[in-house]
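Exercise 3.2. Students should predict the tertiary structure of the chain below and write it as structure tokens, then compare their answer with the key that follows.

Predict this chain's 3D structure.
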Amino acid sequence: MDFRSVIARLEQQGKVVHVKSEVDPVHELAGIAKKFEGQEKIVVFDRVKGQKYPVACGLWWNRDIIGSLFSVKAREVPGVFSAAGKSFQEKPVAPVIVENPPCQEEVNLAPNLYELTVPTLALEDGGAYFSNCIVIAKDPDTGVRNTSIHRLMITGKNRLAMLMDVGRHLRSYYERAEARSQPLEITINNGVDPAVYVCATYPGTGISDDELGVASALNGGEPVRLSRSKTVGVEGLADAEVVVEGRMLPNIREPEGPFGEVSGFYAQKDNRWVVEVTAITNRKQPLMSTLLPGKEVWNSVGCTAEASILATVSKMVGGVKNVYLSHGNCGFFGCVVQMEPTRPGMGKNAIMAAFAAFPPMNMVTVVNSDVDIFDAEDVMRAITTRCNVAEDMVIIKHAACHELNPATDYGVGTKFGFDCTVKPGQEERNKKVAFRDVDLSRYEIE
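Answer key:
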């Protein structure tokens, strides 16, 4: 499925709000979107001041919407993603290149990024940002494709500054190209199939894997459609709304930021990597896409991370029922694992396995299946009543975490876990109070 068909389907389901008034792309658009954040509706801005194209926001901010994209219930999404990852590992489906792709209905070899609808989001952001584009690159040594998401700030008609987190595959590609004083060619794809968005955030793939195969698995084995680019040797997504072609320049850094990040705090301005844009291609009258760094990121990263953790912890420890990366943990920095340990010590093993499955986290809480992991009160009650900190807390100092977490020293911090599973012989003491379930409709109540 492509982006516009997804939006059309949500329209039919009554899950799209259209803002028909003209809105300023600087702060006003994001301010309106913030009022709808988390609701079971996305927002399409039909008239953006000074821009030709509409833009959609909110595709990932509600898990019920995400479930509907893949025809499952919200709580089934991580399992679907996990199954797709397993299918990809067992039998990957390679992408195909198509001729006359929709993304090249219009071609501009004298690119002007200011002609695209790219909003300035948070009040202190350094400029207009692509916040959810799919970046495709090729390993300079092996030619294997990488698909990922990075923030990109517009700094000129044909220039972008971008962030590459430590440990990301794209950064490895770039550093090896830069060591040879060579640029790294990329495409930046906006308005894409949600399955491709999932594969770009999926943590269970290695640097030698073309993770576009995960998207194929999510789409029932249909290969991802790619297009030959006009100016670079890296393909674009054939059905994207817009494809920006460019080169990441070696040995050049320019100011990027600040940017309101997933943590809810501003990432500070610094000299970062530079992209020289060589072409822009697009569909006729493209519907562009943007993302608020908040619940949309917490859900999109959370769902894929849950899939990876569920698979890894189940394999290494066993007894796992479910996993949740809550919004309170920013969908990145912590998770709750629900399990039924069969012997002492399994809760602590689950903590360590979860950290191995998703290294950006710095907190893991493990609970029994009588705890609702989607209820923050229930989880906190388990921490305060079932965790003897002296015995049940795991602390790992000087560990690699996520550099956007301000609790770390730019990516180096302390990981900690709470084993809140009930100890053998303590079952009766930890038996939850229960009451009779009644149907209020059977009673006369005023």
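Discussion points: The two ends are 51 Å apart (CA to CA). The chain has two domains: 3-295, 317-419.
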